[in-house]
Amino acid sequence: MTDERNITCIVCPIGCKILVKTDGAQFEIVGGNKCKRGIEYARSEALDPRRMLTTSILVNDGEWPLVSVKSSKPVPEEKLFSVLKEVGGTAVKAPVKSGQTIIKNAANTGIDIVATKTVLTKEVD
Amino acid sequence: MVKPEVIKVIDYTVDVAVIGGGPAGLAAAVSAHEHGAKSVVVIDRNSWLGGILPQCIHDGFGVEETGTSMTGPEYAEMYIEMAEKQGIDIMKETMVLQFDKKREITAVNKKGLHKIKASAIVLAMGCREKTRWNVMISGDRPSGIYTAGVAQAFINLYNIMPGKNVIILGSGDVGLIMARRLKFEGANVLGVVEILPYASGLPRNVVQCLEDYDIPLFLNHTVTCIDGKERLEQVTIAQVDGEMNIISGTEKKIECDTLLLSLGLIPENELANNIGIEIDNITGGPTVNQYLETTLSGVFACGNCLQVYDTVDVLSADAENAGRSAAKNSAIQKKDKKIIAKIVPGKGIRYVVPQIISEPGKVHLTLRVEKPGESSVLHMVAGDKEILKKRLAWVNPANMIGVDVDIPHEVLTSTQNLEVILVDR
């Protein structure tokens, strides 16, 4: 394992710099963590970094032009922009209910894109 | 002669009136209803409830409160549903103009002028963002300069991109989150400029909003000049020394069309100010006792107009206290309360809320320290008597500290000042 890198722990607001050795498959803590909770975080961050994705999707005929959305699970980091691209090419028709699935299996990740807000149909005067 | 039009005045009487329908106002209203207030009204000038939350589409809300990480709109809907279920009256698109010492509120909307007599009022007006004029950045006045929250509303609510090549001044959480948001929407984020030697936002946001996308963070730097005829064309950034003076010769010009300002928040208290409610110079919010009652009897304050909070979870918990107090205030005839003791921020402490203790018993304090540190001890002392001693592994001005303290009756009979201090271990 040749690759040494610093991982900033995000478990609490202290933000320890944890030094790890990793080759992408193997993983070893060199030091820097003030508590045990940082170890699991550093491992997942070194071997399989994932992020919750939150963004918005176009709504047609809605009281708002957009509905906010989130990924149903954290998305592998390298897939974020593929998912974003699919989100960008999507539009839904109002009404949209919070919790409603908007995209199933986004960018073949097995992860869904779910509405986080209720957007009603625009009232026509 | 034209007769002046007769203004329609609509009269109400309520137990508790809440001014502001953001997270604090909603939590206070729900709590007031749960604690026995029969008629509760929430007044908000927007067409929606939840205040700033619907535009905060990122997650991380409600973790401490509910154990799950929600997005802003989800957190808001949770409280909106509770308020609706309880039958709390909601007046949207309604602007409160003033209230008087008898707690009669004057508000206006499309239906006319409203006079609302309330047994108790809860102030929950929130806060506003600092602008370029709060920090006096010199130069031209072109378009393309926005506060981070305004840009956030443009992108997340109205589907408008504020610009293409963006510099962000200030590394608070809103600024960091906007850096990532702009990146997601295809903008080029050229960097985040921070005058302090460390980022003001959470490490989580530094990692997940900047480092993930290789967005540079210029620490010990500030924007010194703005250039642009119609639209912003470039900003000048420069390094600062330990006293925050600009180091000449370090200036660097960066071409950009958009500057976002994430400079901090100012509690909004015009209504409180107008009626003479005492405002704490440090917090920018009303001076309150442990029931979050202001210096005007029957008027309570909560949320970001009381003090600017780090998380909505803690804000909601305090707002529940204000709502509960307001409900009790309207239910029982209040006895005259005298100020018994003041809480004084001493060495190492920037401020403490509440500022006044008007009864002995358990009190929840929220406070901020003056500078970052490790291994400190927080004390509360009354004369030579120690009331509280709490060890803290680390402290940071960006992280509000919450602590419970039991203030005994005999302490309040012997002293007027309760001093809170922070000492190194």
Task: Tell me what the structure shows.
- The complex is a heterodimer of chains A (125) and B (425).
- By secondary structure, chain A is α+β, with helices and mostly antiparallel strands.
- In chain A, 16% of the residues lie in helices and 34% in strands.
- Chain A folds into two domains: 3-48; 54-115, CPE0013-like fold, CATH 3.10.530.10.
- Chain A has two helices and ten strands.
- Helix content of chain B is 22%, strand content 36%.
- Chain B has helices spanning 23-34, 63-66, 72-85, 132-135, 148-156, 173-184, 203-210, 270-274, 312-331, 409-414, and strands at 9-19, 40-43, 59-61, 70-71, 89-91, 95-99, 104-109, 112-123, 127-129, 138-139, 145-147, 165-169, 188-193, 217-218, 221-227, 234-239, 252-255, 258-261, 265-267, 299-301, 341-345, 349-353, 356-357, 361-369, 373-382, 385-395, 401-407, 417-424.
- In chain B, the strands form seven sheets. In chain B, strands 1, 2, 5, 6, 7, 8 and 20 form a seven-stranded mixed beta sheet that branches. In chain B, strands 11-18-12-13-14 form a five-stranded parallel beta sheet.
- In chain B, a hairpin with a 2-residue loop joins strand 7 and strand 8 (112-123).
- The interface between A and B is medium-sized, with 24 and 29 residues.
